[in-house]
């Protein structure tokens, strides 16, 4: 049975398209950055072809760089590190409403992302949420050795450990459905953010679906105070 959201003591957040809405321009620029990084790491291929492959990798694996790691033997850490200089965090738009809701919601927040740490810190500052995520509550991909959220308990164990909470008292919030399976198995309550394009069928491991982070925080706030 799904617990009342008002009793939640901790929230583990994904970053991209979860704490802000990513649009097509941002996704295009992510994939271009990954393609440029792959070329910088030695991939011998025209840039437009590499960009198409990054898209294909994102569609297939939800990680644009995986195709270059698995099929072109580019070391994961090298590729990941090379991406950041090609990213432009000024494309991300601030959401003042979400920011003020964070101030009103009394629970611990932790971030778990497949993005790199420099991008994560820049984006959190840009959207005004950096104060709610101290350094030790930010887990970027390199901080858990590139073990995918879709398959590994490691990032979630690290996140629960830093706030010393039981999984039963914690939400995991994501825009990528597949990344909610492991936290559900661990006993967390899972929330899928669909940004208005509600999917017809969701797997059993999705406990709640919601439009965006603002609506979710409003629901938690009203459940806690109601
Ligand atoms: Mg995401």
Salient structural properties:
six-stranded parallel β-sheet, Rossmann fold, single chain, 226 residues, globular, 2 domains, alpha/beta, binds magnesium ion
Number of strands: 6
Largest β sheet strand count, sense and barrel closure: 6 strands, parallel
As residue ranges, the low-confidence spans are none
Count the domains.
2
Decide which structural class fits the backbone: alpha/beta
Compute the average pLDDT.
93
Strand content: 5-15%
Number of helices: 9
Bound molecules: magnesium ion
Query: What letter string, H or E per element, gives the SSE order?
Result: EHHHHHEHEHEHEEH
Q: Looking at CATH, which topology of the largest domain would you report?
A: Rossmann fold
Reading off the top of the CATH hierarchy, the class of the largest domain is best stated as Alpha Beta
Instruction: Determine the fraction of residues in helical runs and give it as a percent range.
Output: 40-55%
* Radius of gyration, whole Å: 17 Å
Major sheet: arrangement of strands: 3-2-1-4-5-6
């Amino acid at each position: 049975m799904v617990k009342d959201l008002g009793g939640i003591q901790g929230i583990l957040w994904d970053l991209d398209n979860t704490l802000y809405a990513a649009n097509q321009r941002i996704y295009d620029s992510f994939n271009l950055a990954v393609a440029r990084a792959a070329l910088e790491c030695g991939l011998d291929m025209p840039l437009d072809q590499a960009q198409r492959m990054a898209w294909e990798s994102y569609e297939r694996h939800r990680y644009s760089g995986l195709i270059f790691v698995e099929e072109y033997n580019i070391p994961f850490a090298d590729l990941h590190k090379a991406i950041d200089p090609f990213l432009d965090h000024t494309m991300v738009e601030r959401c003042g409403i979400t920011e003020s809701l964070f101030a009103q919601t009394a629970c611990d927040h932790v971030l778990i992302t497949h993005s790199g740490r420099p991008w994560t810190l820049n984006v959190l500052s840009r959207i005004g949420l950096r104060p709610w995520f101290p350094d030790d509550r930010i887990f970027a991909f390199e901080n858990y050795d590139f073990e995918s959220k879709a398959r590994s308990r490691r990032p979630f164990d690290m996140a629960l450990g830093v706030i010393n909470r039981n999984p039963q008292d914690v939400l995991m919030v994501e825009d990528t459905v597949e990344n909610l399976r492991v936290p559900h198995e661990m006993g967390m309550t899972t929330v899928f953010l669909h940004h208005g394009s509600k999917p017809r069928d969701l797997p059993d491991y999705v406990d709640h679906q919601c439009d965006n982070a603002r609506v979710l925080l409003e629901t938690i706030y009203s459940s806690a105070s109601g």
